[in-house]
């Protein structure tokens, strides 16, 4: 910023200057640079006028006092040049005093500093954080099939009215069970349903009579679904930046205790408040609360689970927030059996600050209002759901006729040692 610039006291006029009008100096005809001291002039005449005024110079024309000032001769007669300046409207009142120039400079510097300060404080999703988000979105895309096409590979869902219980269904289950297990080992995505939960403790309400057992017709299908979802969650976890830096033991500890929560979280994608169902493609794979209740499922889990799904749905999370929440859920340092809590915490904090930055920068109000604490509250809700699930799972797995309908993976993951 030079002194010349600072002495241009009417920047607004400059800005209003019509760019189509030729910029010609009103004094000498040279190329003008804008309005200076109230008239369109070149830099040379601007400086000449300011210096003359500051010096309070008095010039005398060596000729007739009516020299025609041009670009080339403007130095020859200061008197006529100055007269011309005044004639075209240049005013000394428009010249800033040294103090004014100083003040103006300081003001401009201060404004620039404030701008830089605001810029540096404006929350930003850093390049590294954006990379993290992209990685998680990709990980989710690879482990969650929105077409749910793999559901047809599970043991089929068997829905029966309680009044129509027939023994055939249980023989079908048993028969299919022998061929299950690894059929979906290598298949692509799907996921879903917290209903596996229902499946897992369907026995709770039913007691142990044969009729009650018929309530578990959905168990094989949902057990397969859960087993499949567990594999997908494991696949997702492996792609979370930092997860593979953990020891194998810690990776397993984190997954064993969080997988049910992550399945509940990801199932929200298929959950619809239209009819409070998890809709995974065709009618066959549309899981309603009724299905679960009729399967003898305990409302101790189902009721808070549906409430959780509705609450989560209402947050209208962006995909970015959804995947970050799942990753944060998995990387919880307070899970039982975790050895290197500090490392887990570091990774989780990185995820959490990325989520906060994302919400600040990318989630418009009013949806962003208190969104982060609301999401963290959802993680707390999941802990309760997890506990209830474990309780009911233990009950179920103590009954051999039910546990045999599960899959080896489900048995291993939800086995006693995690309780
Ligand atoms: Zn000029
Ligand atoms: Zn002259």
TrEMBL record:
Keyword 4Fe-4S listed: no
CDD domains: NR_DBD_VDR, NR_LBD_VDR
GO MF, one example: nuclear receptor activity
GO cellular component, as recorded: cytoplasm; nucleus
Xref: PANTHER family: NUCLEAR HORMONE RECEPTOR (PTHR24082), VITAMIN D3 RECEPTOR (PTHR24082:SF38)
Entry's family note: Belongs to the nuclear hormone receptor family. NR1 subfamily.
Listed name of the protein: Vitamin D3 receptor
């Amino acid at each position: 910023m030079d002194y010349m610039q600072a002495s241009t006291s009417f920047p607004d006029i400059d800005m209003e200057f019509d760019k189509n009008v030729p910029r010609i100096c009103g004094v000498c005809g040279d190329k003008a640079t804008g309005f200076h001291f109230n008239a369109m002039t070149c830099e040379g005449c601007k400086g000449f006028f300011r210096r003359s005024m500051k010096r309070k110079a008095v010039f005398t024309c060596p000729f007739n006092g009516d020299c025609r000032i041009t670009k080339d001769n403007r130095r020859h007669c200061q008197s006529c040049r100055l007269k011309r300046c005044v004639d075209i409207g240049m005013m000394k009142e428009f010249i800033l005093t040294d103090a004014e120039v100083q003040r103006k400079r300081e003001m401009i510097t201060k404004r620039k500093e404030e701008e830089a300060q605001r810029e540096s404080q404006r929350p930003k999703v850093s390049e590294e954080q954006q990379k993290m988000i992209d990685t998680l979105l990709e990980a989710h895309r690879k482990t969650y099939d929105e077409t749910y096409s793999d559901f047809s590979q599970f043991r089929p869902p068997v829905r029966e009215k309680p009044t129509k219980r027939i023994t055939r269904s249980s023989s079908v289950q048993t028969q299919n069970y022998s061929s299950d297990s690894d059929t979906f080992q290598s298949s692509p995505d799907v996921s879903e349903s917290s209903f596996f939960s229902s499946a897992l403790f369907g026995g709770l309400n039913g007691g142990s009579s044969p009729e009650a057992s018929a309530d578990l017709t959905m168990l094989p299908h949902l057990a397969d679904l859960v087993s499949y979802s567990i594999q997908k969650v494991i696949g997702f976890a492996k792609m979370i930046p930092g997860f593979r830096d953990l020891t194998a033991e810690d990776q397993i500890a984190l997954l064993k205790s969080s997988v049910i929560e992550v399945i509940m979280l990801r199932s929200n994608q298929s959950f619809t408040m239209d009819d409070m169902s998890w809709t995974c493609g065709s009618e066959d794979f549309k899981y309603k609360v009724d299905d679960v209740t009729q399967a003898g499922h305990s409302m101790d889990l189902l009721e808070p689970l549906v409430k959780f799904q509705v609450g989560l749905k209402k947050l209208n999370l962006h995909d970015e927030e959804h995947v970050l929440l799942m990753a944060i859920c998995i990387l919880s340092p307070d899970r039982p059996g975790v050895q290197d809590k500090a490392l887990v915490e570091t990774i989780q904090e990185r995820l959490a600050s990325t989520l906060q930055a994302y919400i600040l920068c990318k989630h418009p109000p009013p949806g962003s209002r208190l969104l982060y604490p609301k999401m963290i509250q959802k993680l707390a809700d999941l802990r309760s759901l997890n506990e209830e699930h474990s309780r009911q799972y233990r009950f179920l797995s103590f009954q051999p006729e039910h546990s045999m309908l599960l899959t080896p993976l489900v048995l291993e993951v939800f086995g006693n040692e995690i309780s």
